[in-house]
Amino acid sequence: MPAGLNLMPELRKDPILNRWVIISPDRGKRPHEFPTVTKMPHKGICPFCHGNENTTPPEILAFRPDNSAANSPGWTLRVVSNKFPALRNEGGMNLVNDGLYESMNGIGAHEVIIESPDHLAELNSLPVGKVEDTLLAFKLRTLDLKKDSRFQYILIFKNHGESAGATLEHTHCQLIALPIVPELVRDEIAGAQSYFDLKQRCVFCDIIAQEKKTGLRVVNQNERFITLCPFAPRFPFEMWLLPQFHADRFEDCAAEDISMLAELLKESLMKMQVALGQPAYNLVLHTAPMNGNNGRHYHWHFEIMPKLTKMAGFEQGTGFHINPVLPEVAAETLRNTRI
Amino acid sequence: MPAGLNLMPELRKDPILNRWVIISPDRGKRPHEFPTVTKMPHKGICPFCHGNENTTPPEILAFRPDNSAANSPGWTLRVVSNKFPALRNEGGMNLVNDGLYESMNGIGAHEVIIESPDHLAELNSLPVGKVEDTLLAFKLRTLDLKKDSRFQYILIFKNHGESAGATLEHTHCQLIALPIVPELVRDEIAGAQSYFDLKQRCVFCDIIAQEKKTGLRVVNQNERFITLCPFAPRFPFEMWLLPQFHADRFEDCAAEDISMLAELLKESLMKMQVALGQPAYNLVLHTAPMNGNNGRHYHWHFEIMPKLTKMAGFEQGTGFHINPVLPEVAAETLRNTRI
Question: What is the pTM of this model?
Answer without folding.
Answer: 0.91
